[in-house]
């Protein structure tokens, strides 16, 4: 580390005490490739888990496991209380008006498929069918593209989207032509998993409300990194995924406005989601259970509850301030690397802690592999958002993404690693 970078670290206001935080994450202390310290910069794909989450899941299985909602014995009651307690925690974390608006799914992808299918099966005024329109954006993750393509193909609805500007923002210049009286639903990400862009929710919601369209916000890259208030977003549905926010894999969230969840039909049928069943027909449990067919991801929900406790204990405003400071520092340091082109906003304004880039003519897979040999874990490829790469005329990018335990020294390690990559292929 040079004197300049050392001085810069000292002036990075808002950083968390990462030394203390990192003690909670056992995996961050392991080494790779023959003793190299792990520099984990793949947080947009999945975050690491603190001891508090690992212990909560372990304790659940060791002391309380049984199936939920069904039994009269003590373990069933404890498991149910823990599962439903996790729902309370998530509801508080996103400032939901009611715990019954929080549906547990297996990930964000399932949450988005659930909404798309509900709207396909719905009665008017929500029904998506021929003659109606669905609006998404060119920066979406495949999880927020493919379910809508399927819905459009099955119903005859038209799929439209907002394009991107050269500097990695949504091009909303034709918003009134794209969101029209025919639009039934507008679905977009709050924060891009490739570009890092934070999108202007207010403006899109205002236009959607003018034409009576429903709004779905994919908050998968927002919930882990910033305070999330579903009431102030004014969307109709918000989705996110547990494994990116210190929680286990196999748990996702769909938040929906109560009256919508009550009115819309279920997608998956099975145990737990019914009121009564005869051989001819069934009636359904009230939301959220109407949307949770079968044995739910109990241990995973308990783990997500512990993750929410952990993040709340640190404070989401402090997590955001940490990542903003680190991102500004990373943008500054990466701008010093010759031939490095950032794909996405170049300044820290309205920008999350994910930075994608190309490095001259060196293929991102080669960049990723040589970085990995130095212990630096980044993501390479199209990051499940191939239309973004097509838009910017590149096959793939290298992506570094930070989290609450990431440090300026790790940014420095990345920059040094990239210098080594350039030398290696130079
Ligand atoms: C913005 C965004 N949406 C959706 C997803 C899908 O999340 P999951 O794979 O957990 O369903 C991701 C995951 O990378 C994402 O970044």
List the helices and strands and how they pair.
Blueprint: H1 3-10, H2 18-23, E1 31-32, E2 36-37, E3 39-40, H3 51-64, H4 74-93, E4 102-105, H5 108-121, E5 133-137, H6 146-155, E6 158-162, H7 175-178, E7 183-189, H8 201-211, E8 214-218, H9 230-233, E9 237-241, E10 252-256, H10 258-263, E11 274-277, E12 282-284, H11 298-314, H12 316-334, E13 340-343, E14 354-359, H13 364-373, E15 376-377, E16 379-381, H14 386-391, E17 397-401, H15 408-425
Parallel strand pairs: 3-15, 5-6, 5-7, 7-8, 8-9
Antiparallel strand pairs: 1-2, 4-10, 9-10, 11-12, 13-14, 14-17, 16-17
The structure holds pyridoxal-5'-phosphate.
Strand content of the residues, in percent? 15-25%
How far the N terminus sits from the C terminus, by CA atoms, comes to 23 Å
User: Helix proportion of residues, in percent?
Assistant: 25-40%
Tell me the overall shape. globular
- Structure annotation, total helices: 15
Widest beta sheet: strand line-up: 4-10-9-8-7-5-6
């Amino acid at each position: 580390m040079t004197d300049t970078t050392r001085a810069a670290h000292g002036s990075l206001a808002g950083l968390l005490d990462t030394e203390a935080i990192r003690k909670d994450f056992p995996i961050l202390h392991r080494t790779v490739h023959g003793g190299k310290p792990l520099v984990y910069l793949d947080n947009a794909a999945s975050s690491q888990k603190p001891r508090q989450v690992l212990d909560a899941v372990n304790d659940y299985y060791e002391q309380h496991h049984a199936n939920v909602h069904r039994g009269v014995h003590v373990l069933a009651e404890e498991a149910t209380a823990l599962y439903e307690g996790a729902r309370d925690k998530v509801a508080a974390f996103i400032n939901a008006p009611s715990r019954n608006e929080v549906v547990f799914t297996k990930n964000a992808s399932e949450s988005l498929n659930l909404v798309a299918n509900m709207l396909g099966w719905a009665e008017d005024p929500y029904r998506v069918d021929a003659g109606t329109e669905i609006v998404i954006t060119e920066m979406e993750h495949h999880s927020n593209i493919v379910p809508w393509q399927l819905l459009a193909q099955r119903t005859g609805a038209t799929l439209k989207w907002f394009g991107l500007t050269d500097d990695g923002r949504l091009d909303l210049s034709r918003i009134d032509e794209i969101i029209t009286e025919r639009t039934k639903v507008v679905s977009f990400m709050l924060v891009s998993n490739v570009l890092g862009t934070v999108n202007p929710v207010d403006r899109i919601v205002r236009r959607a409300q003018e034409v009576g369209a429903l709004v779905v916000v994919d908050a998968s890259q927002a919930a882990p990194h910033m305070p999330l208030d579903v009431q102030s977003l004014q969307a109709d549905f918000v989705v996110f995924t547990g494994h990116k926010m210190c929680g286990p894999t196999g748990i996702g969230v769909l938040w929906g406005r109560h009256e919508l969840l009550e009115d819309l039909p279920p997608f998956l049928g099975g145990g737990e989601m019914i009121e009564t069943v005869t051989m001819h027909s069934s009636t359904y449990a009230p939301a959220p259970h109407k949307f949770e067919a079968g044995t739910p991801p109990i241990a995973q929900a308990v783990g997500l509850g512990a993750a929410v406790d952990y993040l709340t204990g640190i404070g989401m405003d402090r997590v955001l301030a940490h990542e903003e400071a680190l991102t500004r520092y990373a943008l500054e340091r990466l701008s010093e690397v010759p031939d490095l082109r950032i794909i996405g906003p170049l300044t820290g304004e309205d920008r999350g802690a994910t930075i994608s880039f190309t490095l001259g003519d060196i293929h991102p897979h080669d960049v990723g592999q040589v970085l990995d040999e130095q212990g630096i874990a980044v993501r390479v490829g199209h990051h499940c958002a191939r239309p973004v790469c097509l838009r910017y005329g590149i096959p793939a990018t290298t992506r570094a993404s930070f989290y609450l335990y990431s440090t300026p020294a790790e940014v420095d390690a990345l920059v040094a690693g990239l210098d080594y990559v350039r030398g290696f292929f130079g």
